[in-house]
Amino acid sequence: MTDVELYVPDDGLPMNEKGVGSWSVEKYRLLASYINQFSTGTKKAWGHRTFIDLYAGAGYSRLRNGSILKGSPMLSLSARDPFDQYLFCEEDPVSLSTLETRVHRDHPSSSVKFFEGDCNIKIDEIIDSVPRHNSLTLCFVDPYNLSIKFGTLAKLAARRIDLLCLLALHMDANRAYDIYMAQESSKVDSFLGTSEWKQAFKDAERPRRDFPIFLAEFFAKRMSTLGFEETPTHSMHLVRTDDTNVPRYHLALFSKHQLAYKFWENARSSSTDQLPMFKKDGPCL
Predict the structure, then answer these.
(1) Domain assignment of residue 195, yes or no
(2) Mean pLDDT for the chain?
(3) Span 107-134, average pLDDT
(4) Cα(220)–Cα(231) distance, integer angstroms
(5) H or E element that contains 68
(6) In the structure, how many helices (H) and strands (E) does the chain have?
(7) Burial grade of 144 (CB within 10 A; 0-12, 13-18, 19 or more)
(8) Quick check: is 133 in a domain?
(9) What pLDDT was estimated at residue 22?
(10) What is the pTM of this model?
């Protein structure tokens, strides 16, 4: 179970508000639970543990009902057994500056490095900051769309690392189906690290509604080429909207060790049990 408090008061600073609906509670509660499972379960086995957030944001997120949640960087810093090092990357300079302010205010003794820019461009610099000896890393990849590149993940996979990825396939790929299937589009090619997916989807003769699931399956197969364990779609956590029950995205774990998947299933079980009920004026706490 996670013992991290998700909700925080408004501190008057900017925060993430794009695409933050009540379903984000499920995402952050699951993330907090997994971080605690991971950080406690690995603390005695490794000399140095790093947490990387490639789309760190401002540190706080405002729900559409006005409630405010800790974002992924602040949740990682609040772990029961903190990591030895934190590496936060964010492309928006205002968000990154705000995150720095919150981190220095609430976790002044933590070892944190900040990277401004596109994580696909900054990845070499980020990886160079991770110790090579007796070191384990957990990386959270949380883009709003299919902006993460497979080549970026491949570079990370060369280290001892677990990747927890948000696959924005229902949000991005589903809406942009016609664009991505067009001959000149290369966004999905970069996301999957190959152009072979397009012919594979056509050959499978699957209906358009299966496009996001097909991409999730194809992505998992591509990740297995990097040495990660097979990740079937049923082990990915599907997050839906609360009001219309429409799929939003998958959260998928990729690890080279079965223990991580035990942590993941424990986190999924405990976080689901704690999901709050919602009313119009906010969460029922």
Answers:
(1) no
(2) 90
(3) 97
(4) 6
(5) strand 68-70
(6) 10, 11
(7) middle
(8) yes
(9) 77
(10) 0.91
User: Which residue range is the domain that position 262 belongs to?
Assistant: 24-170+230-274
Is residue 42 situated within a structural domain?
yes
**Taking 60 as the threshold, does the pLDDT of residue 3 lie above it?**
no
The DSSP annotation for 71-116 comes to -HHHHHHT-SS--SEEEEEES-HHHHHHHHHHHHHH-TTS-EEEEE
- For 219, the 3-state DSSP assignment is helix
Token output for 170: 């229902």
Q: What is the pLDDT of residues 217-262, one digit of tens each?
A: 999 999 999 999 989 999 999 998 876 778 888 999 999 999 999 9
DSSP notation for 24-67: HHHHHHHHHHHHHHHHHHHTTT-SEEEEEETT-TTSEEE-TTS-
90 and 112 in contact (C-beta within 8 Å)? Answer: no
**47 inside domain:** yes
pLDDT tens digits, residue range 144-162? 889 999 999 999 999 999 9
Q: Residue 190 is which amino acid?
A: S
Judged by DSSP in three states, 173 sits in helix
| Domain tally, the chain | 1
CATH of the domain at 263: 3.40.50.150
